[in-house]
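Backbone geometry:
***
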Amino acid sequence: MSADHRVVGQRLPRLDGAGKVTGKARYGVDQSLPGMLYGKLVRSTVPHAHLRAIRTDAARAMPGVRAIVTAADLPPGRYGSYIKDMEVFASGKVLYIGQPVAGVVAASPEEAERAARAVEIEYDALPGVYDIADALNADAPLLHEAWREYKAMPVLRRDGNVSSRASLVLGDVEAGFAASARIFENRFTTSIVHPGYAEPRTALAVWDDDDQLTVWSNTQLPFEAQSTLAEIFGITASHVRVVATTIGGGFGGKLRLGVEHYAAALAKKCGRPVKMISTGEEELTAALPRQPVVIELKTGVTADGLILAKQARIFVDTGATSGSGVGVASSATLILAGPYKIPNLLLEASRSTPTRRRPDRFAHPRGRRRISPSSRRWTSSPTGSASTRSNCGCGTSSTTATWVRTDRSSKA
């Protein structure tokens, strides 16, 4: 490369490199303000239940406690990207283990922790919905009884525990299968995966005398955080300032609000700056991991290996609320179509809402992937079925496949 180039072909220093290697970079956990207090969330210990009572008297009387906040202290309403189905604090009932029910503000993190443990919650247990198959059953418990009343994008096809459906149709798949020399049927499953960043989610929030909110946060999307906070608290976005700190890893796991809205709610209640930091336990039970997916795939090919038809059912599990699962279900059909010219496609995706923590998408992997035949080992059985299990660095996946011989060709 020519020495005349100032950028192309040159080794350039990272813009954030000097601060990180010298220790001068200020991460979210490094932020502080005079008079700062500390917040701690009280989370549900059951997956699905009506809230009968939240008893806070014992916690309020503990040393250092400044305030306790529940859903009753916030403006009524729900928020969300595609469907307004999320609450800051649970009201009426809880939908997953780890859902925030209340928040405690105290003079120290230890005092906030002790007070949070002293809050008593009385539940009336409801039947749980623990996986995609349960959620899709006609007699499954309905997580969001008022789902029809939620504000949502008008183009979404919703029904009960299924908050969206997407499809991609091209040609005639039945005709494509009829013309195929081989038909392969596969079932792929992926597991829930945490992005694995080293720095937990953290935020410091303060309100001024003009009811304007400032939040220091390790968010990856400060403008989305700004608009969502404005929506939650019923103020204009110009009254919300989000300062993005140095991030100790995100990988898509800090795209949506983490603890910013809780810090803001607690700060508003007590009139002081409030800082919140997620613990490792909270990260693994109530963060925003990647959604698990089930894909049932049927592929028809010619004797020469040309793909004639592809049919798939994609089931996205995004937990008790929709999050970004609507977009994931839609984009999954596009990605599954792949980079090949396939004349017949019928790809259908839906996302369901089991009673567990709310996963969300994160950045890797992205784009289309091709698995070469040499990377997959098939072991035929006398009945003509084959199966394989494989692991990758970002989680686990499994597939069970059966192949069907047609009368048109016996060539492998």
About this structure: Residues 147-193+289-405 form a domain with the Aldehyde Oxidoreductase; domain 4 fold (CATH 3.30.365.10). The radius of gyration is 25 Å. The chain has a mean pLDDT of 86.
